[in-house]
Amino acid sequence: MIQGWYMYEDVLQTTNPDLSAFHGGGGKILTVHGEQDDSIPTGSSVHFYESVRKTMYPKQSYNNSVAAMNDWYRLYLVPGAAHCSTNTLQANGPWPQTTMAQMIDWVENGNAPKTLNATAITGDMANWQLCSWPLRPMYKNNGTELVCEYDQASINTWMYDFDAYKLPLY
Q1: Residue 2 within a domain
Q2: pLDDT at 165 over 80
Q3: Which run of H or of E encompasses 75?
Q4: Domain count, the chain
């Protein structure tokens, strides 16, 4: 792992969570990551988001720093999805279809997406509204409704230390 890190660090990841220059220049980030990604661990996107939040807003409370991040950086985790698409084992799972259009609308018109619309092929839940982190999707009404809620237990499953490495790992 460490050898690969040194060989490919400049093209595979960022190790600098200080995005002040990017943010100061008006940059916006929409990260979409499948929760069943078999190529890149989903936790790496959560870990990077949290590292940026802690680096850029160290003196703010958790809720205030998340609100500040939401002005320019949003993370969406897609339940059951794989790497950049639906999961072949859950072929009718949702995937956001209009992410680029929503990004353009955010950048050009200031309309930040509260949720991302993820479309499945068929079924009662063909259109899902994906939550912006740290909100988590929770089934309600006997599994017929998916709502975005703050759920600390669910959030905690994504929070862990990579203490086996001395360098930042995302």
Answers
A1: no
A2: no
A3: strand 73-78
A4: 1
